[in-house]
């Protein structure tokens, strides 16, 4: 009777973890719904429906995450929001 040795290979898989940053938009008493909607469509590539939903959430909840992704992608988008007079930050 022969014995076969079983070899279990362990494979190490390197996982690259990317921190998904978020742009958070905050409510203010200055900007209109139309301005916020148009700016979200321009700066964050939202559809009109997405932009409207985010503007409603910001209005009633005080803040809303409007975009997630890599910091390098979010930085210019957040800058566009700030230049338009909106209150936003990357977290």
In short:
This protein has 91 residues and is of the alpha+beta class. The chain contains 3 helices and 3 strands. It has a single domain, classed as Ribosomal protein L7/L12, C-terminal domain/Adaptor protein ClpS (Ribosomal Protein L30, Chain: A).
Give a count of the beta strands, DSSP E runs of length 2 or more: 3
**Main sheet: strands, sense, barrel:** 3 strands, antiparallel
What count of structural domains? Answer: 1
* CATH architecture term: 2-Layer Sandwich
How helix-rich are the residues, as a percent range? 40-55%
* Helix/strand class: alpha+beta
Structure description:
The chain has 91 residues and is α+β, with helices and mostly antiparallel strands. The protein has one domain: Ribosomal protein L7/L12, C-terminal domain/Adaptor protein ClpS (Ribosomal Protein L30, Chain: A, 2-Layer Sandwich), CATH 3.30.1390. It is built from three helices and three strands, in the order βααβαβ. Strands 2-1-3 form a three-stranded antiparallel sheet. α1 runs antiparallel to α3. The chain starts with 20 loop residues before the first strand and ends with a strand. The mean pLDDT is 90. This is Adaptor protein ClpS core domain-containing protein.
